[in-house]
What does this fold into?
Amino acid sequence: MLEEHGHVTDDVLQAAHGAGLDNATLVEVVGMVSVNSLSNWMNNMIRPAIDFPEVALV
It folds into this structure.
């Protein structure tokens, strides 16, 4: 979708439906990706101070 600027071919849509995804789920996924992308872009632009302790990677 990103490469095609939001345009989805019938083949891709049929493949998604064939994998068990209905239109409501696809809309939800696009919405969540949009919210996360916007949040990341805003945080990268604003660079808020991190006010919680760093957690060690396991």
User: Anything to note?
Assistant: The radius of gyration is 17 Å. The mean pLDDT is 93. The first helix runs from residue 10 to 18.
